[in-house]
Specification:
- Helices cover 43% and strands 19% of the residues.
- With 202 residues, the chain is α/β, with parallel strands linked by helices.
- It has one domain: 3-Layer(aba) Sandwich (Rossmann fold).
- The strands form 2 sheets. Strands 1, 2, 3, 4, 5 and 6 form a 6-stranded mixed beta sheet that branches. The protein has a two-stranded antiparallel ribbon with strand order 7-8.
- Strand 3 and strand 4 form a beta hairpin.
- Helix 2 crosses helix 6.
- It is globular.
- It starts with a helix and ends with a helix.
- The N terminus is likely disordered.
- Bound molecules: flavin mononucleotide (FMN).
- The site of flavin mononucleotide (FMN) has 22 residues, from helix 2, strand 3, strand 5, strand 7 and helix 5.
Length: 202
């Protein structure tokens, strides 16, 4: 397509030309069979970054999708699901996606994560129970996969007014650690390798 024609198409034309495919964050520095996806729900981006870093921990083999794009993930064999917490729950769009797609999603879930502030304290066993075991795992209907809760961040300039008013006494903070997310990506891959090994007949 000539450059001029492309520019003249504008946004509407481009949507028609390329269809309504969800745009994932694609990072494949190495060979990949592209069977992995990471799906996240976020408000201000902590879980987007966690999702990309989890994929990096897996060697960058996963496409990373924002649930707001309502991606069709049926073509992937392995999906890691996670998101940020507000009012003790994941983003309602992620919750809605899981409920609507549970019939096929449950066979592909390989890991969960959540990102929260936990009043400035490092998340531990209780947060894992609350946000993973009793929330994400129950929504998806799959329990036996790795799950991790990460400390997140507050950037008040990114918050909408209502959330800003709730958070105004809390100083901005940034506790999300890339190293923790990378390690979790490795843990997920290791758990799938273990599962596959145990399925091989002796
Ligand atoms: C309005 C609001 C409600 C929140 N509710 C919770 C909560 O219930 N529990 C918690 O531990 N953290 C809570 N947090 C902290 C967020 O989970 C944390 O800042 C996270 O990193 C934000 O993710 P995001 O970048 O996707 O918005 C809340 C933050 C906001 C702004």
């Amino acid at each position: 397509m000539k450059r001029k024609t492309f520019l003249q198409m504008g946004l509407t034309g481009m949507t028609m030309a390329f269809g309504k495919t969800a745009w994932s964050l694609k990072y494949y520095p190495k060979e990949s069979d592209k069977t992995w996806a990471v799906l996240y729900g976020t408000w201000c981006g902590s879980s987007r970054d966690a999702g990309v870093w989890i994929s990096e921990g897996m060697g960058g083999i996963a496409d990373v999708f924002d649930v707001r794009e309502k991606p069709d993930l049926k073509r992937f064999d392995n999906i890691v699901v996670g998101g940020s917490i507000r009012g003790y729950r994941i983003n309602p769009l992620l919750e809605e996606y899981i409920v609507e797609n549970k019939s096929w999603l449950k066979d592909k879930v390989r890991g969960y994560w959540a990102v929260c502030n936990n009043m400035g304290q490092p998340p531990g066993k209780q947060q894992k129970e609350t946000y993973i075991d009793n929330h994400l795992a129950k929504l998806c209907g799959v329990g036996e996969v790795p799950g991790r809760v990460f400390a997140g961040r507050i950037t008040k300039d990114l918050l909408e007014k209502e959330a800003y008013d709730m958070m105004k006494s809390i100083p901005d903070n940034d506790n999300l650690k890339r190293a923790d997310c990378l390690a979790f990506g490795k843990e997920i891959l290791a758990s799938v390798h273990m599962r596959d090994k145990s399925r091989v007949t002796p």
